[in-house]
Specification:
- It contains 5 helices and 9 strands; from the N terminus they run E-E-E-H-E-E-H-H-H-E-H-E-E-E.
- The protein is an alpha/beta fold.
- The chain has a single domain, classed as 3-Layer(aba) Sandwich (Rossmann fold), CATH 3.40.50.300.
- The strands form 2 sheets. The protein has a 6-stranded mixed β-sheet with strand order 5-6-7-3-8-9, with helices on both faces. It has a 3-stranded antiparallel β-sheet with strand order 2-1-4, with helices on one face.
- Helix 3 crosses helix 4.
- The longest helix is centred in the C-terminal third of the chain and has 16 residues.
- The relative contact order is 0.21.
Length: 230
Amino acid sequence: MTHSQPTNGSSVIVISGLVKQFGRFAALRGISAEFSPGNLYVILGDNGAGKTTLLRTFAGLARPTRGKVILLGTHDLSSVSAQIGYMAHPSLLYDELSGMENLRYFGRLYGIEGDQRCADAIRKVHLDPSLARPVGQYSQGMRQRMSLARALLHDPGILLLDEPFSNVDACSASEMVNLLGTIRDAGKTLFVVTHQAALLDGVADEFVLMGAGKIVSRPLERPLLEGAPR
């Protein structure tokens, strides 16, 4: 069920004829699409469908072989990188540092000084900012939540999440879903790659079904798939 509507008629991301090749393999095959602001999009599909590659292209981490990506009105994705929060499937955290130490480091990259915003981001994902032990000693679920805190730290307008619920217990996953719904309701745009799409039934605005490097359909209701793998 659609939970909210775009706040205006503009598009936050426009892609046209998007192709991404790795050698002779085409991960994306001529995709054209537009995505409205203030929505939560759930990206589904089988292994090799192109989901992660599409997310990395939006993040500016995968350069298209052909085609165009316009994000927030510009082709120059580096100029709007501060508006993007990216949570990769690997946590991208420093194992030898605590959660606060990790966020202090990433905060400095965005010009964030002091501990308040770091602590607030950690509390948002229901972790304790005073926890001193290294992230390398966290459970996988805790690592996922800390990785989400890292992506949220600089208050981006676009949030790109790759398998955020991987190895997260049911209670924590529910808390994360509620947080994502709150973030969307605040006007942010979210793209979530997941094989646990049922978790997002109550907050998703649109499901984007991919297959063989293309967008196959964009139903408002979740398609009847059994947990498509990444």
